[in-house]
Amino acid sequence: MIIEDDEALGRSAAACVERWGGTAYRLPRPGDDALRRRLQHPVDAIAIVSRDDIVALRYALLAEHLKPGVRLVVTLFDRTVADEVSRTIPNCTVLSMTDAIVPSLLASCLAPQYAILQPLGNEVVGVRREGGTTTIEHLPRRTLTTHANHRPRSTLASWFRSLGTSAKVLVASFTALLLALAVDVTLGVLVLHEPWPDATWNAARTLTTVGSSPHAEHGPGWYKIFSAVSMLGVLVLAAVFTASVVDRFTGHRMTSILGARSIPRRDHVIVVGLGQVGLRLSAQLRDLGIKVVAVERNPHAACLPLARARDIPVILGRGGDRFLLERLSVRRARALAAVASDGLENIAVAVTTRAIAADQRIVLRAGGDEVTTESRSLFRIGAVCDFTHIVGTFVAASVLDTAPRSVFVADGRTCALFPDDQVVDLATWDARRDTSQNTRQDTRDHEQPAEATEDSADRARPRPPKSTVA
């Protein structure tokens, strides 16, 4: 049984279960009575597919209450809730939809020669694509941080351009105050003939409106006029600077001028869309030592506090805005990943990025819809990760108790990586193909010795049980 509140994901998971020889029954957003009536029939396993943790948790608890001990597969994003559910309900397997798609996104962003990159302890497991074959490699994390970028280095101007309006005002007013201090010290030494320690002291007193130099009363007339104008200017600059400082400390800023949450300007990854997928992708990149900046158009997005806690710089704005992408130094970026839940918005971001930086690596989260297919035929969009297909296949494989580590698409083939570092082409699980293969195998059994009928790799291949999911 598949309990769903996302029709596309539920349909994808059910199609995989039935293709592999199981029976799937879908319940879209069932009420308590409908679920109770359905659970009166025999059920081998229940998969709960939802993008909302509260909805998934409620259905999991209700299913366990109505049919205790049934095998449950639940999609949950919050790791704390997931750990508690796994501890409380031993027969429950908790999956994260983001964990299913992020390895493919990581590989597309950092190393396209790999189908997936999955961090595991102090190393990264990568599945390399070589023609029609795949090989598994265990890479040190530091190998992903080295990146040969022959593009121009970032400059002070690009750093200033990356700042927000408030930060620009703060930096500009502070720079103007320092310039006024330097000019006042210079004039004190050259015009008033003060020792430089006294000139610095008097200039600081003037800058802070405490007092002025006693020698200024005997200075030339032009100096007095210049000093009067500069004091009025300093008064305004001091007010602007103070207001900017107060705004930086009291406002909920998602970026900083310097430090961990400052906007990177070279060899970074731009993540557009800070939902569950965008947050987990950004966090994985930060854990791998890759500089990252996220873009989110909703100022009330649920993942913003989590990003702030992880020191992930976030820009509030529309990812398809040309000026915003230029502010984020998209030409010097390592890759751009458009992973919002809206496929059309991701396409718009990709097309805008392609117009600004024609050779930039672009990664697109898509749902396997016709719009994405048609757009790829018109534009060289970039690498497309089919969220619905990958997550649906991952859920189906888990509900049939095969426990894959990850699911990915390589050269048009849907494959699964298992904990024993074995890669399986899931097309070999199809019930129709298995039937035809068994028929051919029986024919060969009558023609050749039994020891030659099947090699060791086929015997070791994980296969889903022929069970009833509904």
Topology record:
Layout: E1 2-4, H1 7-19, E2 26-28, H2 32-38, E3 45-49, H3 53-66, E4 71-75, H4 79-88, E5 92-95, H5 97-110, E6 114-120, E7 123-130, E8 133-140, H6 142-145, H7 156-162, H8 165-190, H9 196-207, H10 221-250, E9 268-272, H11 276-287, E10 291-296, H12 304-309, E11 314-316, H13 322-327, E12 335-338, H14 343-356, E13 362-366, H15 370-378, E14 383-386, H16 387-399, E15 406-410, E16 413-418, E17 422-425, H17 431-445, H18 456-460
Parallel strand pairs: 1-2, 1-3, 3-4, 4-5, 9-10, 9-12, 10-11, 12-13, 13-14
Antiparallel strand pairs: 6-7, 7-8, 15-16, 16-17
Helix pairs in contact: 1-16, 5-11, 5-16, 8-9, 8-10
N- and C-termini, Cα separation: 4 Å
Query: Biggest sheet: strands, sense, closure?
Result: 6 strands, parallel
- The strand order across the widest sheet is 11-10-9-12-13-14
Structural class: alpha/beta
Relative helix content = 40-55%
Mean of pLDDT = 82
Individual helix count? 18
How would you sum up the global shape? elongated
Total number of beta strands: 17
Strand content: 15-25%
Report the uncertain regions.
433-437, 439-461
Radius of gyration, taken over Cα atoms and rounded to an integer in Å:
30 Å
Gist?
46% of the residues lie in helices and 18% in strands. β16 (413-418) and β17 form a beta hairpin. Strands 11-10-9-12-13-14 form a six-stranded parallel beta sheet, with helices on both faces.
